[in-house]
Write a sequence for this structure.
């Protein structure tokens, strides 16, 4: 049987960060791996990794009918040329596109990987309700044609397993895996660390509290900024650092103007998108993700791998990564007071912070390191 695998994503940066390591693992196992991604500013970097790269037209977070039909046709064309034995699609758009493209295909196996159900499942309003209905309807349709479904947390597993045609198809695999050889305090580039120190105007004794990821309301960026503004005015030597980017096609994205309201405070620093997350985490004392909902947050796992105490929220996905008072603190979502108290607790107890960091590293080593996760995915392939 052919051992060609197509990994389909809707954003080059996500493929670069999350799927290239999986592609390399599969190549070592004898698979011929292809990346199918949109043409964007990161697709060239994906090509440079040596992974076979195919391009299709797609605009992230939109369902433009013409682009959708064009993407379906392009995927069909690629399959006709390459004869993939497995199509493994990540996120909602590629999940639905591949379901249409290979709905009645008998010569390939389709895996839909649900990395998170998104902002619609974090809100309570009427708009969120209609989004949830739409998303579950799409996944119900795709479940009929999908050979296997992968979800990343227990809450999503319960939701998706209630759909028809999912029995025997659905697997729970926690996260995308973390490379512990890369995310290790002994492997950092000290020149990059020095550059970060200069950007942050770092002084010995400063406490660095970091947030990494997209600047989305549902990620809790507003709560992070509001608490940062309060605490930096009360406590000397504390800096809040944001390394992230504006996902402008996401309805939850904050505006640059809203962010700039807080950047007048010199102890709140916005670095923009950086590929040197490891070196920033090396400088960090506490990692914070005040999210409303997650799939399985890689940002938290990377922070844990770098021996950091984590503050995150007791919501699906996020609460799966942190054991309260063991490797971090869990707080309610949208709770500025709770976030403020948690930060104050950790900055006042350095030994507790260090112990939580050690425990977090141990959890990643035992449960979430990349080889464990990739072997679980490989077992799904073999199960087919």
């Amino acid at each position: 049987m052919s051992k060609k695998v197509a990994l389909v994503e809707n954003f080059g940066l996500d493929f670069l960060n999350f799927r290239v390591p999986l592609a390399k693992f599969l190549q070592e196992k004898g698979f011929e791996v292809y990346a199918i991604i949109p043409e964007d500013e990161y697709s060239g970097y994906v090509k440079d990794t040596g992974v076979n790269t195919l391009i299709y037209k797609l605009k992230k977070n939109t369902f433009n009918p013409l682009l959708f039909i064009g993407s379906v046709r392009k995927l069909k064309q690629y399959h006709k040329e390459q004869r993939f034995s497995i199509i493994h699609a990540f996120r909602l758009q590629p999940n639905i596109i591949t379901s249409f493209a290979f709905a009645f295909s008998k010569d390939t196996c389709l895996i839909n990987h649900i990395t998170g159900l998104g902002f619609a499942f974090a809100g309570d309003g009427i708009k969120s309700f209609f989004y949830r209905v739409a998303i579950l309807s799409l996944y119900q349709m795709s479940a009929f044609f999908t050979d296997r479904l992968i979800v990343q947390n227990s809450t999503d597993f319960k939701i998706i397993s209630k759909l028809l045609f999912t029995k025997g198809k659905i697997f729970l695999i926690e996260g995308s895996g973390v490379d512990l050889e890369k995310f290790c305090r002994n492997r950092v580039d000290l020149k990059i660390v020095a550059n970060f120190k200069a950007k942050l105007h770092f002084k010995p004794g400063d406490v660095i509290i970091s947030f990494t990821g997209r600047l989305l309301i549902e990620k809790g960026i507003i709560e992070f900024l509001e608490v940062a503004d309060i605490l930096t005015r009360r406590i000397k030597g504390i800096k809040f650092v944001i390394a992230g980017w504006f996902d402008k096609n996401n309805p939850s994205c904050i505006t640059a103007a809203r962010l700039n309201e807080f950047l007048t405070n010199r102890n709140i620093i916005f670095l923009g998108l950086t590929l040197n997350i490891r070196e920033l985490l090396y400088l960090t004392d506490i990692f914070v993700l005040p999210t409303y909902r997650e799939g399985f947050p890689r940002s938290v796992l990377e922070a844990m791998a770098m021996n950091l105490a984590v503050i995150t929220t007791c919501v699906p996905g996020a609460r799966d990564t942190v054991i309260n008072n063991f490797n971090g603190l869990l707080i309610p979502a949208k709770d500025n007071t709770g976030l403020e108290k948690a930060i104050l607790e950790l900055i006042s107890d350095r030994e507790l912070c260090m112990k939580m960091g050690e425990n977090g590293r141990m959890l990643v080593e035992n449960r979430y390191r990349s080889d464990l996760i990739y072997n679980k995915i490989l077992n799904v392939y073999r199960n087919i």
User: Anything to note?
Assistant: The mean pLDDT is 94. Residues 185-368 form a domain with the Rossmann fold fold (CATH 3.40.50.2000). The longest strand covers residues 207-214.
